[in-house]
Amino acid sequence: xxxxxxxxxxxxxxxxxxxxxxxxxxxxxxxxxxxxxxxxxxxxxxxxxxxxxxxxxxxxxxxxxxxxxxxxxxxxxxxxxxxxxxxxxxxxxxxxxxxxxxxxxxxxxxxxxxxxxxxxxxxxxxxxxxxxxxxxxxxxxxxxxxxxxxxxxxxxxxxxxxxxxxxxxxxxxxxxxxxxxxxxxxxxxxxxxxxxx
Length: 197
Fold this sequence. Notes:
Layout: H1 21-34, H2 38-58, E1 64-66, H3 70-89, H4 92-101, H5 104-124, E2 129-131, H6 142-161, H7 170-193
Parallel strand pairs: 1-2
């Protein structure tokens, strides 16, 4: 075995003795960090890309998902609209917004709850093996920003265009957007992950 090569004993398995695609990606990421030349690093990245395509062809669940592109954004938008259109036409949205506008703490908790749900669906629920790739400022996952951003902007735009909010009362309009954002963010996270792209 050459110096710096990954140890065969380091490969973790699912308990039944078999490794999965997540294990393969862990090993490839370790190898990418070890290789010195740019050509070798590019070869490892190409191998990761091929493995991702093979993973995508195998099953809609348990895939390794890395990066966040226009396709992912479109899937998140579709999920946000599917969950959000009923909220935009339902009168109960405005009733909840009136309550939240009078209780800023509850409004903040509602927003944080939605963000927490998105984090849970994407990174904790293990629907797919989601990898953080090129985070913003080295810390903030692009997928998280994309899913939250598209769902919140969709809520604001949909409610505004359909005349469900009046921005002359911005606090109440914001509360309406937050209420619609809750299911839209959940739909955006599921819409992004379930196709497995």
